[in-house]
Amino acid sequence: MAARPELAGRRSPFVDLPGHGTSDRPQDFVYTLDEHPDVVAVALDAAGAADAELIAHSMGGALAIVLAHRRPDLVSRLVLTESSLDAFPPTTAAGSAIAAHGEDEFVEKQYARVLDAVGPLWAATMRPADPRALHRSAVGLRRGSSPVMRTLLEGLPVDRVFLQGEHSGELEGRRRLKAAGVRVLTVPGAGHNVMFDNPDAFAAAVAGAD
Fold first, then answer.
1. Could you report the per-residue pLDDT of 6-53, keeping only the tens digit for each?
2. Rounded to an integer, what distance in angstroms lies between the CA atom of residue 18 and that of residue 169?
3. Taking the CA of residue 6 as centre, how many other CA atoms within 13 Å lie in the half-sphere pointing to its CB?
4. CA 20 to 30 Å from 140, out of 30, 34, 97, 202?
5. What phi-psi label fits residue 146: left (phi over 0), alpha (psi between -120 and 50 degrees) or beta?
6. What pTM does this model have?
């Protein structure tokens, strides 16, 4: 996405959270919405990226909201895609299925089963992650932030865009979010992975051309 012509000329750092991708996998890290945003803040500080536009998806959106609340100096704009706004998300959410198991049970027994069940696309994104990091992150997401992410988002004094895939159904609390100044956009032909399902609409929203 960062290479698309609509986004040319922008500096676009990508962050692998601890326990995910090529980042370190500390076993004593808690991997919750208290810790993850602080790590991203350190990365942004190190990159000298004040007033950044945070482009975040799913769980990443939840931590981006918390980060924008804690460090308003770092964030000038939020583009959230299918982001988690409430604690205890629906049991159909992938994170809820992971958090339903105890940590050791998930690592030792359920991780491989989940990889088989989620299909090749999600499995490809899960395999580079540490199973304990996945579980602790899912538990932290289910717990949510305090105040909860939705409340924080409604009160943030920055430009905020929320992308909801058409196939994901109506966004809960849509009117309240719009009343708080959040631009809520329904993306045609898209599900949870909006950037894959409708990359043109996603790029336009990131570029501010929506």
1. 988 888 989 999 999 999 999 999 999 999 999 999 999 999 988 999
2. 31
3. 13
4. 202
5. beta
6. 0.94
